Amino acid sequence: xxxxxxxxSCQLRFxxxxxxxxxxxxxxxxxxxxxxxxxxxxxxxxxxDGVETAPSLSSSSSSSTSEVSINSSTYKWFxxxxxxxxxxxxxxxxxxxxxxxxxxxxxxxxxxxxxxSDYALVFGVxxxxxxxxxxxxxxxxxxxxxxGDLPFGVSKTNGRFAxxxxxxxxxxxxxxxxxxxxxxxxxxxxxxxxxxxxLSFSLFILTLKDVxxxxxxxxxxxxxxxxxxxxxxxxxxxxxxxxxxxxxGDIELPYYSTExxxxxxxxxIALAKHLNSIGAKMYGxxxxxxxxxxxxxxxxxxxxxLNYVECFPEGYKKGTxxxxxxxxxxxxxxxxxxxxxxxxxGEVELAELAEMSGFSLDQATEAKQLQ
Length: 371
Fold this sequence. Notes:
Layout: E1 16-18, E2 31-33, H1 59-62, H2 72-98, E3 104-105, H3 111-115, E4 121-122, E5 125-126, H4 127-147, H5 156-183, H6 191-209, H7 216-237, H8 266-277, E6 281-284, H9 289-298, H10 300-305, E7 308-310, H11 324-327, E8 333-334, E9 336-339, E10 342-345, H12 350-357, H13 361-369
Parallel strand pairs: 6-7
Antiparallel strand pairs: 1-2, 3-8, 4-5, 6-9, 9-10
């Protein structure tokens, strides 16, 4: 019985064709090789008798994209960081849409310098709104991928690459915004913006962490394309934006006293006396509008009774250090209340101050009777 001889990496093509005899005389039949094709299986080892296996194809070479392997614990980090980013950008969105000022950071400049600038809009859309939507997408994707079930029939591979594309876009945009903050908005401080940038970079690094060496060439091309698109889009949007002079830039602010225009109610006076008696302190800065608004809640007479600590009594300019009495207790923003060992940041309603300080109902009733 004839047997196939194993041959490596080969394919033979042959056939036979009978030649017509050249004369009527008897002659041996002749054959020549034709070009008909007969594929012959080649293998590196001899197959078993009577068994032929089909040629195999490598599945790795036919795949157009590689799967980024991210374990479930990483998806939990994605969800946590994305959720923090949503809270951060939700607060900035509220400030932007309502025109409110953020809690004053140490250093003089506020997020209002940034939020009210031309750079807080991208083609007319508030930047915090875009950030909130992007963080929401990352959070939803990572949560679904962690459970292994994506809606609308989206495959897990496509979901992973969508997550990778989103974090790459966010990191590219954050790098561009940091450049804008250090050049066009020089001197302005925006703690919330820096937090958002940190979260974006962290999410991007988490995405890259589990990318295999052989996948790098594929994802690098995607990164470069997305980064170029982001930079080009933001540059086009900001082409007419004007640089903003920050309130805390290179200008020098000599100390000045603020005038309180409202008059105090008996209730506010009684509360101010109570706060002073228990050692409650209000830390502020003369240039901080929120500090002035807090004093306006008490009124002229009551504000004078407060135990107020000015953190920049000698004025402010770039490089000025905060007053030691403020730095010793770790003041990070203005105004800051310290009542019975508890810290309250920002403007606080009188009712909340009364509750926090233990301002009794009898004292409040007595104050109301004096009205």
